[in-house]
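Protocol step 4 of 6: structure prediction from sequence.
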Amino acid sequence: MGEKHLNIKSSTIEKGLDLAKSFLEKLIFPTIEEVGLLIADNIKLFRYKNQIKILLKAEKYVADNNIKIKEIPTKILVPLLENASLEDNEDLQDKWAKMIANMADSDSNLQNQIFPYILSQISINEYNELKELSLGEYKFKLLRNDYSRLIRKDKYGNAYDTQVLRQDINKIEQEGFDLNLVEYEAANLIRLGLVKQLPPTIIIDEFKTGGENVPLFDEQWHMIGAQYDQDDNGYRITELGERFLQICEISKK
């Protein structure tokens, strides 16, 4: 049998490339010409621009906050810049810049490979909700401090203000906080170890016995029924979650 030749006209290839390019223009921003996708060095130019932008921001944070810099280990810095170069969200680019500044801060001890990985895996919506959760935890801490001050004066906790605070604290400890996220976003924060979901609330049906002064044979015994409220369990931030937010923000010195 003779050899079979694949005959594809150059115009067919060009048409296919144009169609692919047209489709990709609908999927990506900036434009393909700016990103360099399917052209020359693929997306190298796009990533290079992002790296420059983020590094310049980091340098400004260092200068504005009088940060004395130290070296960032190569095994941390290289993947950090690689991941940062793919970020096209301005707000998250700002987090990358702050992360670099904090890692370079000679007064901090935040150099760890886990933080760039986490930031590369998170959306701005998830990040903002994590910050809201952290704010809730901060207010909860203040609530506990207020309760501690009250209980020193109200030893038995009988005062109205003391009881109200105790109820508020119990509610948060049992139910946690809400996350305004869809299920897969909340699951992502759990997967990354930034938040934990509290176990379901156990609801025990009310029951009554005959009381202390009723003879044993007159006691009324009831079966105890327990139910799990699967929809009522909230979230708490983890220590890793707090550390992650710390490295993505600049604290005033």
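Step 5 (inspection) to follow. Residues 124-153 form the longest helix (30 residues).
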